[in-house]
Amino acid sequence: MTAAPLPPVAPEVTATLVEDLSPRLRKRLDAAVTKLGSRPTHRDGDTVTIAVDDDTELRLHAPGGVVATVDAITCGCLLAPACVHRAAAASAAPAADPAPEPAAEPAAESTPDAAPDPAAQPAAPTVPDSTPPPNSTPSLGDTTPPTAPALATAPPSTPVTVPAPDEATPAQREAAAALWSAGAAVLEAGVAGAGAVAQAALLRAAHTARLRQLPRGASAALSVVTLLRAARAGDPSYRTADLVTALAELLGTAHRVGTASGAELAAVRGRARRPYSPDGSLRLYGLFTEPVVTDSGHGGARTWVVTADGRLCTVGDVAPGGVGRALGVADRTVRLGDTALTHRELGRAGLAVSGATVSPDGRLGAGKGVKAVTARGAAWTEPPLAALWGTPPAEQAARALRSVSRYAEPGGGGSDLLFLDIELLGAVGESGGTCLLARCDGGVPVRLAVADDDPALAHRDNLMLLATAPGTRLRIIGRLVPAPHPRLTLLACSHPTGESTVDLGFDRLSRADLPDPGAPVHSAPDRPGGPGAESPLHLLERRVEQTVPAGRAALGMLGDVTAEARRLRRAGLPTAAGLLTALRASAARRERDLFGRLLPADTDGFAAHWLAATRYTASVAESLCAAAWEPGPAVPTHGPTEATAPRPAGSPR
To answer: 337's torsion region: left (phi>0), alpha (psi -120 to 50) or beta?
Structure first.
């Protein structure tokens, strides 16, 4: 048999199969998932067959590409359907993205025939509030460990009063409490302890949240499940920071459902479908095209265009297929009106569009009423494109940071792209590999990293070739990477000869494209500078990250953190010192009953402290990133003070 990937399984299917297992089989579930992952699979149409052993087969029937019902997973063993194999197969398969609820979005605001773009959804969704659950506010500025906060209990099934329209319903509050409990349990156990049973609890909470019109919380729970599975499987693309962000999104969103109202509540609930609004007639000028390859196996291309008044918009084509599809889609016709332009051609040409529809994040809809014809494009040195490079780098970085912030409101618009005129300085080594050092106008040194390391794409080869041409001046487009030093992933640049532009993910430069050697070489610093280069914020960040793989107990076994807290205070970060002390105390705290027996740990209180610390470190890191792009010193050289950094909600001055 040939190996075939398992089809996505609906979250409620996995949750139901795991919940139906006996306690004895639940203990064996993780081992069964591992064993099943090594067995041969075969696809025949909509059915994927797994050879459990020489005499037993397990089948997953996925009409439409998704296993949508419990009965669609069948096993031929003697214990079926009460065997562990069905639940193990569902737990090993990727979680399917739930279909949007028709009632979640007014028909007048959405474009049904505009396909969603999975690439634009962040690997980890965002949360704008770090406040602990209701009735709990840990002290952020005091080094005395605060009393561990407790999770608000679920509301009674029969509410006494009917909430106002701009408040969450009792059913939504109950669903949010389930999301919080499932997320806190993962934080308590860590990656090592968050097996298939814990993941099933998250999937059940996600399904309930979706049914009760909380798509943002449901999406956050699915992201946590996906990252947990990647971590436990040893996926090389997994990063602990991604799971930290996803857990913070899940916990923060779950809490805010019970406290938000009005427009804030609408943002916390999220949208099941992307809204598109009419935008009349548009004159579009192509900017560049980038490949899109996601961790979920989707691939395609995204072309950036600019309107006559300078707005950035995108035309995308992303679907399951990975990097192979991304390379093929670049030369396919753009799905917008009757134009015959391919994505790569549109990146250098123009369009005249009538009946255009645009989403808040700038995506152009491809509805039946949209008409488009080919028009003349513009060079990067001509209006309206040239104006993109006229904004100072610091202002561009501040705008982009609002867009890429881990805790920005979703759908808030804005772009994470920067447009810079630079001079190449050469390659510089880092712990994660080699990057390209450049100096942008204004004298700020910028590190240019590879946007995608896949060898099938041209990013890595082009960057290494450009590193051999120090002194070359280029006009570039990059995506901001939040860091204590100026950093971008390089997406497109002007051709070294100045004759055209280069899409660095698709076009491959050659040695003949570079200027003659002999240009002056500038020394490249070994370490990045910037206001946050020597900040001790990492002392708190590493404790936050250590919790995720090892769980609360591992953090509680740490020694005294007084020396670390003292160092944070000397650097002007007393709130960070208080959070570190409180987090460690909450992790180590275990109460006993009258007979001296240990009581269950306060998982909700620890989750509240961890969430506050996570939000605080993200806020300070973003402040350091913005300050690093300033051409002159913006903060004292010994590190930032809390006066320069945004504070989590509820933290005292």
So the answer is: left
